[in-house]
Amino acid sequence: MTLAQLGRVLYETDLPAALASANEALRLSHGLSDGQYAAFALATLTYLNVQRDSLVLAQRNIDSALIYSATSTDKVVNGYVWLRKGWLEYIVNQPDRSSASLFKALKTLEGQPADAYRSLVYHYLASIYGDLKDNTKLKTYTKLSLQSAYSSGDPDMICNAYLAVGSSFLKDFRLDRSKKQLLDSSIFYNRQLLQLSKAQSDRIINHINSGAAALNLANIYWEFFPKQYKDSVDKYINQALIIGRKSGHEEIIANSYGILSEYAIADGDYKAAEKLFLLGLSEVESHVGSSLQVKASMLKGLASVAEKAGDPVKALAYFKRYMQYESQVYDAGKMAIAQRLEVQYEAEKKDKELERLQERAAFNKKLNVIYIGLIIAGALALTFLFRSYHFRLKSSIQQEKLQAEEAARLKAEQELLQERQDRLQKELLAGNLQVEQKNELLQTMRDKLADHPEYDMLKNQMERILKEDLRMDEDVEHIKSSLADIHPEFFNRLQQLADNKLTRLDLKHCSYILMGLSNKEIANRLAVDPKSILMARYRIKQKLKLEKEDSLDLAIQRLS
């Protein structure tokens, strides 16, 4: 946590060292189970990568920070992550998303000792509503930012709030210059900022606020006060230059020289104005990776001074250099726009993915309900089948006892065959009676439906059932007549070959195979899945001791 905070402190004077410190914090956090440490390091990296114009990388940082924060119960860190997310969305011009994330940060920080973060949230909300020209909400959130800053006791937060309040009063004064008290209020808060930053210099991290306040005061005295106040302008310009040079902030340096040159231009001393611009440009260019936009602005000012001095050749030379920098600024601007668009695209893509995941979750929830219903139905069916099996087993045991008693009374194979033939005839007669009774019942139902035209759909369904039933009756008759021709020793041979391991269902399968029915037809007869027939054939081959490559159909034909 300390390393991540150090990265935040160092960014003004040494951005590479700041990034190294934050990345080291992230590396150390990977060994910890609590996600707050990685989340905090990644949120800090989000801020630092924006400072070096790496918006895409910053977006990845904040996305990862949100993932880690989901495993943390530290509301202060989680609130800070949402704060940085809202800030980044504001940077890439997504005010709606930004305000939603910032309000999420406020909700997360509610009741927590995090007044400094709350002050920042209110500050960014004020900026959003300022861009939207909503002056009422701008003032509301600026005031809340100052109140939270006071509560935090953090000098950086207080300076940040002072700068915002002072800018707000100056903006109001520009709209209505008759209200001198607005200008006085702006001067008051900017001076308060400078006094606080001087008194708490060892605790101040963000010195840019102090430089901006000094520039604001110098500009106020230049714009709204007579030339007699030039001493005040010089005083605040000197303060701004000291801060700008210390922090390496080129815009503060350039603007300081720009205000000084305005006095020289107003006096008609164009050489002095040019000299001031050149001094400022020299300082800016001495910085490694100096801002193209700042250099372009200063060269534009030099071209304007040369033109006013009546030196078109020099003006043209400065203007050409200005155009070179402006061209580079334009290219950099296009790259920045491309980065913002990429970040916006990634954000929208994530939103769509989230919507799809939510839809899938809802679908899975419905599917789970269906599965639970099927499981319950399956359990009931299994219960029924289990009871039916025990009933049939009991019936089978009784039947086997009867057969054993019957076999004991038989004296010869001929008498046994005669008895089987008699029993088959009885079963056939009983089956025919059942079929006739069933057909009469179905015919009665069809006649009843015929008297009710409103049941046409049900009547049509009944007609289909009758046709299917008649076809099944025909199949039964065909099977019975075909089985009658099979040699009675066929089943004995099958059982001998299988060591009496074949069940009644296995024998029925063998009968259908002998009749030449396909797997699909057998499945239809038995009302089972075709895959079940394949498994049954495999078991029968094993019981008949057939090899994998042997044909079950051919073996059964030979046994018949």
UniProtKB/TrEMBL annotation:
Keywords: Coiled coil, Membrane, Transmembrane, Transmembrane helix. Residues 338-367 form a coiled coil. InterPro entries: Sig_transdc_resp-reg_C-effctor, TPR-like_helical_dom_sf, Tscrpt_reg_LuxR_C, WH-like_DNA-bd_sf. PROSITE patterns: HTH_LUXR_1. Signal peptide: none annotated. The chain crosses the membrane at residues 369-386. This is LuxR C-terminal-related transcriptional regulator. It comes from Sphingobacterium ginsenosidimutans.
